[in-house]
């Protein structure tokens, strides 16, 4: 906070009010409703509802399809984060390294950031459709790729679509991070270490940790939430529910299945997962970051 | 300088990266300029065909939905209204609340800060059903307000502005106070002009975010009149024909152009907010 401040009672509330009102109505009210839903069981025919304690949670956690979705989501999060960060970092390091054409490279690499996940999904659909899809045919000739029936092939399909979409976001942030590193540190390191490869891992990469830390959170939220549009336009869970993410499953159960109790419980479990990941990140990774 | 391996490798890696990004979209575009029979017999194309105007004209005016009330061009307009609505509203309310948090002796500053911090953990996808309920209780389904308000209930932008205000030297306010500026004058004449780049960056970010929404418009628009381009893809049954390709290109064009043309502001904003 600032040392010198204004001290007008009414003005401060006036400035805070619009956001506060919108957040209360459109965020906290639904969250409260989520908790109510999660602890109630609705009569399927609409004849009232009753307090159910943790029954919805028990039901969700003992459901094998939920465990499948949980496993898939965790693999999904890991694969997307790892590959899109790696490729984004590789490209950012190279873009930071060149002198000629830097801004053209930058422009040509960041635009996919603006494409909607759902549009990426539909695009991927054309490449992976059975008869005319180029990637479908290519992989099919290699090992008999068939995502309609094979679980791992359907994984590959959504992994490729979701990772492709996220590369440019990682590229932008890594490039920004690289450009924030002081040149003098890097120049000094050239004297100590001849190998540019080792210099990168011992000097540049540790200095990039704040960016990496930030990007890991961004990628986790992306993989959890934003990929819903991709799943819904690519496999829709095919072969038989193995490529449903937790969010996608909650949406299907809540909106298509009209099981509000289950959807509410699933939402709360997801909030807990995201909260735990965030706390874990702050405690275990933040402590090891070198800020310059 | 810091060079120890030839730059040519960097260029090669960058060019492969660009090809990885451009080739798929180029093939969608090239295919969108061919005739239906070419696509259905030969599959996707690499070279431009002859049906560019015909296909795009068709897809812009194609009538979709059960009542045939909507065309792709009106969906584009809806998407623009939604995206600009979300971006403007978010910028205005976040600028204001960040100002209140940073520049006022505010008893509730800390609780309010946490109140908005939590919003980052609860994206719309997590509260989609109850949000739908709230919006329908308020009678806002099938309205622009219903499309815009729930998506503006996020506080990420407030953080960006808060960080930015905190980086502004205290002397600015001291000087402004000496000149007799009250909070309004300080906000409008000093802070807003200083925040221009940040405002642009947040606006672009929220525009892309709003335009690209899929699930929310999908569930809350039961009337075809309010369909947006991104969700309309699911509703129009054109995937198997050449119009599907043209539709993809049309739907991604506005946010991609925004990012390409305004990338300078977007990236500068990211730098400042670190």
List keywords for this structure.
heterodimer; A: 292 residues; mainly alpha; MetI-like fold; two-stranded antiparallel sheet; globular; B: mainly alpha; 15 helices; 2 strands
Structural class computed from helices and strand pairing of chain A: mainly alpha
Helix and strand sequence of chain B: HHHEEHHHHHHHHHHHH
CATH architecture classification name of the domain at 78-244 in chain A: Orthogonal Bundle
How do the strands of the widest beta sheet of chain A line up side by side?
1-2
Distance between the termini of chain B: 27 Å
CATH superfamily of the largest domain in chain B: MetI-like
Number-wise, the strands of chain A total 2
Total helices of chain B: the number is 15
- Helices and strands of chain A, in order, run as HEEHHHHHHHHHHHH
Mind summarizing the main beta sheet of chain A?
2 strands, antiparallel
Helix proportion range of chain A = over 70%
Shape-level CATH architecture of the largest domain in chain B: Orthogonal Bundle
Count of individual helical segments of chain A? 13
Characterize the biggest β-sheet of chain B. Answer: 2 strands, antiparallel
What is the 3D form of chain B? globular
CATH hierarchy class name of the largest domain in chain B: Mainly Alpha
Q: In percent terms, what proportion of residues of chain B is strand?
A: under 5%
Shape of chain A: globular
**What is the total tally of β strands of chain B?**
2
Please give the domain count of chain B: 2
Q: Structural class of the secondary structure composition of chain B?
A: mainly alpha
Quick gist of this model?
The complex is a heterodimer of chains A (292) and B (274). By secondary structure, chain A is mainly α.
